[in-house]
Structure formats: structure tokens, C-alpha cells
Amino acid sequence: MRSFNFFGRLCSAFHDYPSLSKIIVVSTLSLLDFLRSGGSLIAYAEANTNNSNRGHVAHADAITSNSIAHADANASKKKKVVVLGTGWAGMSFLKNLNNSTYEVKVVSPRNFFVFTPLLPSVTCGKVEARSIVEPIRNIIRKKNINVSYCEAECIKIDPASKKIYCRAARATLNTNSKQGEEFEVGYDYLIIAVGAQVNTFNTPGVEGNCHFLKEIEDAQKIRRNVIESFEKASLPNLSEEERKKILHFVVVGGGPTGVEFSGELCDFVNEDVLKLYPTVQHLVKITVIEATDHILNMFDKRITKFAEGKFLRDDIDVKLGSMVTKITENEISTKAKGSDKTTSTPYGMVLWSTGIGQRPLIKDFMKQIGQGNRRALATDEWLRVEGCDNVYALGDCATINQRKVVEDIAEIFKRADKDNSGTLTVKKFTEIMDDVIARYPQVKLYMKSKRVRNFVDILTEAKGNAAKETIELSIEEFKTALSVVDSKMKNLPATAQVANQQGAYLAKCFNRMEECEKNPEGPPRFRGTGRHRFHPFRYRHLGQFAPLGGEKTAAQLPGDWVSIGHSSQWLWYSIYASKQVSWRTRALVVSDWIRRFIFGRDASGI
Question: Which of 103-107, 268-272, 337-341, 477-481 has the lowest mean pLDDT?
Fold first, then answer.
């Protein structure tokens, strides 16, 4: 048994520290070389013990000094990369970065990553909170690059001095002084991936009376509140009106989060409350308030129609075209679109899920760099913050300010008109067409919307469907033909899928930074000479899900493919299990699903 434990620990040591195997191999080869030299070396050593020992010690000290000096020199050469945030964008960047020439420091008040798409499942006990959480140190310890983590909150960014100012996330318990809690960190490159916060639209009463669903703590708080509501409603000293008020759950916002939470709560009521709280199950009411004309309005109309029909069958009250005007401790006030009449309704719990807003850190930084009037931090197509060459922003806190084709029409025309004839033929444009498509993604989107494979067809249409070989466009005609292309520009959605892809893209850019400095691989610069270092970021939409409860999910996948029902639910299970960041969380999530199928949801109030 002891030998088994020894070998087990030895294997674990090699797994955690792969460099040990290299040390043992080098040491073994040195020993073999020493023995191969024979007894004369041993005899010489015995005859010159004192001198030899002093020589070996001096030689060892010299080697050690040289090694330390070499290590310090290498460390000083490394570029310092600071990553703010441990969400989807930050985690994806860390997992994909493998360039050892960087010294990476992660700064975040949250020392774990949360699989946010499963937060609604935590609110009613379908999945446990710790099952969708992965400690950030588990992620960085597997990296073969220099990565460290600080549990702190960034309170200010100073791009001029390339420093950030941080405050310790957890105050020191043994002192009343704040000295030592605040510190600064220098950087060569800054990656801002702090996400966003809930947007209350300055509605009175939201902050103090509503639940949000952005963090794991929010989901745990909602779960406790749901259980407490049923326990409180089961007390014998309450009237039926009081029980109805306590068991009235209101969801403000008919987006994916609000709809999924409503479905999870409805399942909990129909599957578990019926058995655990049979005397109050019939008093439960779920209301969804949506300001637009439909819930899930970012999905295909077929999904929207099915979701509204299913909620109607499940007795979920959906109020469309209603806006919340005020929320008090006991009532929520709403106003229908086009009406001045305000209606107040008693409630037990309100979930506010209406969109996102920027964190104070980002608002302050935007004012510093002249972006104070924007809704999000503006970056270029390479995710660099506009006006800050060494600062990048990813995820919900940023938006890509895509350059318009119209802004570069003159340069594009000049690049194509090599003979300076003042007109552009199909042949001339064909030579630079691929570069135009690579630089401006809206061109490809416009071609897709027009169902054409070649942009020349659009030029032909602008010339009244004339023969391609006879087409000659002036710069004004060329501008008219391309002006419609920018109509397809749109901001990327604030989703985990976008943030994940942005983090992976930026990590690949950093992995090839030195190589692409020497040999740029991006599209040509229409304004100026040479090429861009990298290809610009391109988002690839992989589809989206909307769980509706009752083991039914709506799926909208690429190619205009829509699937609704039980088969989509199993697809949802398989994809969300495969997308977990570790085998540990994957096993925990799957086991939670199995446990729920067999034993039901856990209704304990912890």
C-alpha cells in the first residue's frame, strides 16, 4: 500500500510539474557521464579533496549566478499583459494564449469563472451553483506560461502611464487601516474584459426591490427567495390574498434570460411544488412584462410565436407592450404602450432582466479617452480601444466600431484604377475584390442578403444589368453602388458566444505578435501602405437556444434552421455539457441533470 501511495504521488508530481522529468533525465545523463570517466577521476578527487571541493563550489556558485542573471534578463524582456476580468472573454484569452514571451497577470474580484448560460437553471435547483463554477487558478495552473492572479478590483485605468489602480477585493480582517489594500500594476498590454452590469434605465425602486441574474450570487439569492416564498405562503396565519401576493413572481424583460427563468420556475411549480407544497400550488402566478410587441424578439418569428403560445398554455401571463414605471416594496406599476393609465399590481418577487449597462470603471475610462457619449467602449476591428494602441476591450463592455466602406471609397477606387483612367472596369475591381471583402465584413453580409456570390453582380445591377465586359464606372457611380453595403452593418450581440470568440481571436493574435510584426498577414491598408498585422475579427454565429420549460427548447441554428421541441432540448443538454470549461464541471453538471430526473429538485433553503 505504501509503495502504491509513493508511486501515486510520484505520478501526480510529474503530472503537475512536467519539468521534473527533464531534470531527472539531465541528472541521469550527467551521472552516467561521470561514471563512464573511470576510477582515475575518483582517485584524483581523493588526492585533491580540499582543492577540488573549493573548485566545485566556486564553479557551482558561478553557474548559479549566471542562471539567475539569465533568468532575470529573460524576465525583464517579457512584455507585461494585464487581463481585467475572469468572465467569458478573459477565460477564453487565457486558455488560448500559449506564447511564453509574455508575463500575464489576471486581476479580478471574482476568483472563478461562471458558465453563465446555466444561471437560470441554478435559480430553481436544476443545477447546483458550484457545478457551473471553475476556479481561475485551476485554469492558469495548467498553462505553461507565466500567469499569476490577484483577487482585486480595478478602480482606475491610466493609459498615459500604462498603469491600473486596484483595491483588494477582501479587506484585511486584522487592521482598520486601508494602507496596503490599494496598489498599482504596470502593463505593456491591457486586456479589458470586465463585462457589464444590469441596466435599470433609472426606473425608481429597481435597485432596492428587484433581483438580477448576472452573477452566481444572484442565482443563489433567487433560489433562496423562491423557497422562502413557498415556505412563507404555507404558514397557517395568512389569508388567501396574502398568499397570492407572496406567490406572484414577476419577470421584467422577455429576452432569453427572462424567458428561461420563467420556464424553469414553471417546471419547478408543476413538478416539485405540486408534491412539496400541495396546499399553495394553485395560488402561484408568473407574469412576464415585455416593452416590445413580442418576447424573444431577437429570434425567428416561428420561435417567438411558439414561445408565446406555450406560455399561454402554461398559464404564464405575458404582458406585451408594457413598461414598468415604478417598483415599491409591495407593488409594481406598469403602463401600456400608447396609454397614460398606470396599473399597480402586488407581487412577491421581481426579476429584472432588461439589458446591460456599463460599469463605473468603464464609464470613467470612456470619459478619459473622449468616448463619454457612447454606450460601450469603442474598439476597431482588431479589438483595440480607439485612441489607445496597447489597450484591448472584449465582451459586453465593448463594441466594434466597424469602418464604413463609404469612408474609403476614394482610396479603394484609386487602388483599383491602376492606369489612372478615371473609370473602373469589372476586371480592375476583380483584382482587389478579395481585399475589399477581407477588410469590410459588411460587403459579404450584403452579398449574402442579395443572394449573390460575386460582388460584380452588384456593380452590374448598378449599371442597369449591362454586360460585364462593357461596364465602366466613374467614382460617383462606384460610390452609389457601394453606398448600400454599409446598411448591413450592425453591432454584435452581448452574448457569451461573442465574448468567447473574441478572447480566442485576441489570444491567437498575441501568440503570433512578433511573427506578424515582421510579416503582416492581414488585408492591405487602403489608407497608407503595407498590410495590417492580422486579419480583423470576424464573428461566426453558431446558433442560439431558448429553453421554454417542459423539456422543450427552441433552437435557431445557422442556415435558417429552426427546431422546437424535445429533440432540441437534448441538443441543448449535449452542447452545454460539451461547452463546459473542464471535465470536473462537465461531470458535475451532467450528474445534477441525472439527479434531478431521478429525485427531483432540491427544495432546501440553503
Answer: 477-481
Secondary structure class of 175 (helix, strand, coil): coil
Alpha carbons 13 and 7: distance in angstroms, whole number: 10
Beta-strand runs (E) in 87-227? 102-108, 112-114, 133-135, 146-158, 163-168, 182-186, 189-192, 197-198
- Which pLDDT score is estimated for 468? 63
Q: Which three cell numbers stand for residue 78?
A: 517579457
Q: Which three cell numbers stand for residue 286?
A: 408568473
pLDDT in tens, 281-332: 999 999 999 999 999 999 999 999 999 999 999 999 999 999 999 999 999 9
Measured in whole angstroms, the distance separating CA 129 from the mean position of its chain's CA atoms is 19
Q: Report the 3 state secondary structure along 35-68.
A: HHCCHHHHHHHHHCHHHHHHHHHHHHHHHHHHHH
Mean confidence (pLDDT) of the chain:
86
How many angstroms separate the Cα of 175 from the Cα of each of 150, 154, 182? 20, 22, 14
pTM for the structure as a whole: 0.84
Q: Would you state the cell numbers that stand for residue 589, as one nine-digit string?
A: 453538471
Strand partners, 252: 289, 352
Residues in CB range of 15: below 8 A, 6 or more apart = none
- Cross-strand bridge partners of residue 133: 114
What distance in Å separates the CA atoms of residue 210 and residue 208, rounded to the nearest whole number? 6
Q: Treating both helix axes as pointing N-terminal to C-terminal, what angle do 256-268 and 216-233 enclose, rounded to 10 degrees?
A: 40
Name the nearest CA neighbour of 105 among 62, 156, 152.
152
Which value, in Å, is the radius of gyration of the alpha carbons in the chain?
31
